[in-house]
Amino acid sequence: MAAAQRTVIENCSIATVDADDTEYASGYLVLAGNRIEALGAGTAPEGLENVVRRIDATGHLATPGLVNTHHHFYQWITRGLATDHNLFDWLVALYPVWARIDEPMAYAAAQGSLAMMARGGVTTAMDHHYVYPRGAGDLSGAIIRAARETGVRFTLARGSMDRGEKDGGLPPDFAVETLEDALAATEATVREHHDASPDAMTQVAVAPCSPFSVSTELMREAAESARRLGVRLHTHGSETVEEEKFCHELFGMGPTDYFESTGWLGEDVWMAHCVHMNDSDIAAFARTKTGVAHCPSSNARLAAGIARVPDMLAAGVPVGLGVDGTASNESGELHTELRNALLINRLGAHKEAALTARQALRLGTHGGARVLGRAAETGSLEAGKLADLVLWRMDTLAHSSIADPVTALVFGAAAPVTASFVNGRQIVEDGRLLTVDEDAIARTTRDQARRLARIAAQR
């Protein structure tokens, strides 16, 4: 790092979210290239060479960048629909619309989803894309291109569905792939786009959609394929009571037992939602280190229930936060999920002891990095880790009278992002993206949403 260009950030509060939850009331960070070179209390060391920028971060809190562990970018252009539905009814209402997406729509929706997250402090994002209509173009390539342009670290969970309506599933038959096509296309995406290096900006996971839209054969063979290719696995699990009933009726067992029978529990697996988990389910996830993407706003929007996050954490289950698709979380922001995770879990059995502000911040940073298999490189502020971090402004009207900055960030209003760095590169300044044109994206996403609505209405 001696020859690397350095950025020095000083005079900020720092919440490192390291193993000891180390915090500094006033400290510094030195970024060298794409890594954190040093951090600590007080001012930065004298005599640093190649310092190209110094930031006086007085009044700010520095944290690791937020890590989103579950999303569906394409839903950005179907926001505000089916607003009073449970999950299954919501899917039935929207699948016929989603089945009409094409490459320009997927690209625009990915731009909108990524821009909204990035300007709100997300430095590592993921997209679970599982709708691949025939003749729609290169949807995976379009999504990855949008992530590269935005500048965030990114995991594409290449999804798939092969259980259409004729086989007892929810999606229209023309919106699903065959078993063979799904496996082949997923492997091709991994081979073309997955980067296994420690500082990778793009990775790919294997991600059949859910038990009620995917055959047992696809679940089992997808798991085998992912492990042969050396990538992670992702799906939806235990989201609603209807899903649990579906699994019992179709497979003769609950979701967790079904997942285990198909090879879908393990350290290389994470699942979205996991709302309806009993003690044995949680024990199975803890034993196998299967991860969970907790999506509190979406769970509330679809009346799915309250996930047992405190019990999962106590058992040792890896848990991160997820936005989920913006057709069930219209804000599309992860930093609001810090607050929602804390508040909604306090409505559960543990009440006020459910989560603390620092536990909520850990869910959104280190917890998410662990779930995505990237905790060795990001998710906490430590020397040698990737320079993925956020400066939150805490001295405005919204937060200045709250003495503890972490409490202010989690309990308070959404904090302004003064600067966000990914891989050592600044991508946000004073709440605006530096890498893409937000206003142009707003126009494009509106146009593509209207285009999709017209096409869907004609069918």
Topology:
Elements: E1 6-15, E2 23-32, E3 35-41, E4 51-56, E5 60-64, E6 66-67, H1 87-98, H2 103-118, E7 122-129, H3 139-150, E8 153-160, H4 179-193, E9 202-208, H5 216-229, E10 233-237, H6 241-251, H7 255-261, E11 269-273, H8 279-288, E12 291-294, H9 296-301, H10 309-315, E13 319-321, H11 335-345, H12 357-371, E14 389-393, H13 405-411, E15 417-422, E16 425-429, E17 432-433, H14 438-458
Parallel strand pairs: 1-4, 1-5, 6-7, 7-8, 8-9, 10-11, 11-12, 12-13
Antiparallel strand pairs: 1-2, 2-3, 5-14, 14-15, 15-16, 16-17
Description:
It is a single chain. By secondary structure, the chain is an alpha/beta fold. The chain contains 14 helices and 17 strands. It has helices at 87-98, 103-118, 139-150, 179-193, 216-229, 241-251, 255-261, 279-288, 296-301, 309-315, 335-345, 357-371, 405-411, 438-458; strands spanning 6-15, 23-32, 35-41, 51-56, 60-64, 66-67, 122-129, 153-160, 202-208, 233-237, 269-273, 291-294, 319-321, 389-393, 417-422, 425-429, 432-433. Strands 1, 2, 3, 4, 5, 14, 15, 16 and 17 form a nine-stranded mixed β-sheet that branches. Strand 11, helix 8 and strand 12 form a beta-alpha-beta unit. Helix 2 runs parallel beside helix 3. It is globular and about 70 Å long. The N and C termini lie far apart (58 Å).
